[in-house]
Amino acid sequence: MINTVGVLGLGIMGSALARNLLEAGFSVAGFRRRSERLAELKAMGGRPVDSAAELARVSDVVISVLPSVESAQEAILGPKGVAAGAHEGLILVEASTLPLAAKLALRDGLAAAGVTALDCPLSGTGAQAKTKDLAVYASGERAAYEACIPVFEGFARAHHFLGEYGTGSKMKFVANLLVAIHNVSTAEAMVLGMKAGLNPQMIYEVVRSGGGNSRMFEVRGPLMVKGQYQPAYMKMEVWQKDLQIIGDFGREVGAPLPLFSAAVQLYARALASGMASEDTAAVCAVLEQMAGFQRP
Description:
The chain is of the alpha/beta class. It is built from 13 helices and nine strands.
């Protein structure tokens, strides 16, 4: 039985997971280097710890939500990482979006320490995480997945078992490709409508009820309506890592990605325009600039 869940990485996503797991009745421990995030965890009823190794020692399951390969390797396999605090029965749910080769290396390193790893990327934004509007793409040992089902149901609206370890990441790359394109298509439609004289709120309300709707239209459309992209639920600079992973994966399997490639250029233009810390919905502002459109 799982009593304590450790959250490794208390950023936008990790903090939302911690809060929802606490509300679901789990004891929650957490670790992140930035002390203010640990203070927030304590204030919501969680237990801050001093290292990833300690997090592993006090947890039945650890969920890793980290921004990069380097941070994951250090926090999971480093001298003060999860593997260093391993105990019998520990499960590591690797929920970060990382290249497949990095996920496999983490699994192998954890196996050497006696830890079972699941590859479980999450589909959804930080804003969706706050309302448990996430999907878990789980892969690995089925028995470990089944043991973690109560945990998944504590922070997500859906979870899927997809088979052997690594399949979850492949599915996340497919899903993120659609997110990248649908976000840009939402911005493109908004700018077309606004330049034609339509009110952006009206565009959002009407399109959302018809065949042109998408989850990204629903989630990022309101940001585009307001033209306000901070605080970011997914920062443009962090999103670049995910875009790189998708592009590399597409080349690796030999799949053409024409629409994705076109979308990537707009995200790159947003970065070049100084929008690194803004939400990815800010591609709308890029297209407004390209259209020579200025909101009244």
